[in-house]
Amino acid sequence: MQQPVLTPFDLGTGELRPDPFIMETGKVDLGVYYKQERFEAEKEIFGRVWLNVAETAELVNPGDWIVREVKVRSVSVIIVRGKDGEIRAFHNICSHRGMKLVWDEKGRGGKFSCPYHAWMFDWAGDLINIPDEACFSYVDKKESGLTPIRCETWEGLIFINLDLEGTQSLADYLGPLTERLKNVPFASYPYTARVGSMIDANWKLAIEAQCEAYHVRALHARTVSKMLSSTDNPFVHPLHVEYLGAHRMNSVPRNPDFELSPAKLVQAFSFMNAQQMVIADTGAQDKPEETFAGHEDINPTRSNFWGNDQFVLYPHFIFHLSLGGWWLHRFWPIAANKCYWEAVYHFERPQSLRNQFAVQYSLALNRDTLMEDNLALVQQQMVMESGAKKIVQFGEQEGLCKHLAAVSEAAANDIAAARIAAE
Ligand code: FES
Ligand SMILES: [Fe+2]
Fold this sequence. Notes:
Elements: E1 9-10, E2 15-16, H1 20-25, E3 27-29, H2 36-46, E4 50-55, E5 65-70, E6 75-81, E7 87-91, E8 106-107, E9 111-113, E10 120-122, E11 127-129, E12 148-154, E13 157-161, H3 170-174, H4 176-180, E14 191-199, H5 203-209, H6 216-219, H7 225-228, E15 240-244, E16 247-253, H8 265-272, E17 306-313, E18 317-322, E19 325-335, E20 338-347, H9 353-384, E21 391-393, H10 399-422
Antiparallel strand pairs: 1-2, 3-21, 4-13, 5-6, 5-8, 6-7, 7-12, 9-10, 10-11, 12-13, 14-20, 15-16, 16-17, 17-18, 18-19, 19-20
Helix pairs in contact: 2-10, 8-9
C-alpha cells in the first residue's frame, strides 16, 4: 500500500511531527485510552486548539443563537449571529454571580436575560440592564459584559478556541485543509437530522471506529458490509489517503457489485429513490458542479467505485462527503472512559414523499450501523482497562487511526514538555 506523505503540524505552540515510532510500527501504548495522566493532557489540548462546534446554517438570521458545551473544560458557549451579521462566541456565564446565563439550546432575538436576577446581555456581549442598578455602584457596565471566546468560520463550519491568549488563526490551524477544500458545496445539502449519545468509552476509540473500514466486514456484517466490501476489495482498503498536517483524509470505496436483495423490499424501494449516504447514486444529480462530485479535490482518484471522502480533523471532528449528502461527527471527551458522540446528517431537501422515505431509511440504516460501533466500543473499553494488553496494533489499512494516534502522542508529549519546562 502506498504511504502518504507525512508533514509537520502546528497546534499553536510551534512545529510538531507525528510520533515516528507509531507511524513506523502502528503500535500504540494502550494506556492512552484510560490513564488519567494522558486524559489530563488531552483536557489541556481541548483548551487550546480549534474545535468545531456548529454550522453557520444554524444561525441564519441576526439575533439567532445556539448553546454548545465543552464539558471536559466545564465550558458552556453561547454562539450568536449579531445584528451586524458577524458570528461571535461567549462564555455562557453571568457577570453578576456566575450563574449559567442561558439554559435553552437555541433561540432568537440576540438578548440574554439571566434566570437568577435578570441581568441582561446582548448579541455583542454587552451588559445592557441591571435590575435595581442603584445597588451596584461598584459595577462598571462597560467592563461587565460576557467573556468572549475566539470564534472563526471556514466553509460554513463554526470553530471556537478556548485559549483567549492564543494567536494561531483557524486558517493556520487547518493548514493544508484550508485550501484543499475551498468552496466545497456544503450548503447544497440543507436538510438535516441530528443524533447523539453518551458512550462509555474513550473518545479516541470512538473516533477510530469511524476512521477505518477494516472492521466493516466483521462488525457490520448485518448492516452495511455488502455495500462496501467487494470481491476485488474485500477489506475495503481506502482508494486514497492523505496526511494533512494535524489532520487527515481518505477516500472510502463502495462495492460496485452490490445488488439489492429481493428479500429486502424496503431497502430496494428506498434505494430506488436516491438520497443514499452509504451507496452512491450516480444518476441523481442535475447540476454536478453544485455537488461534492463536481468539486475537483473530492474523489481525488476519480474512481467509479467511490463511496465518500472522509476528513478527520484533530482533535475531534470528522466529516464525510458523498454523492447523496454529507455527515459529520463530533466526539466530546467527558472522562478518560466516557465521551459524548454527536452526528449531523445533511441531505438535499426531499422533493417528494418517496425522497423523504429514502432519507428516513438512510438515517435508520446509519443509526443501526453506528449503534453496532458504539456497542462494540463499550466492550473494548471495559477489557482494555484490565491491563492485560500493553499495546494496540494498527495495520496499514488503518492509516488514519495510526496518524491520529501519532499526532495525539506528539501533542500530549508537547504538553508534558511544557509542564516540565515550567517547573
Ligand atoms: S447571577 Fe445572573 S443575574 Fe444574578
Ligand atoms: Fe463502524
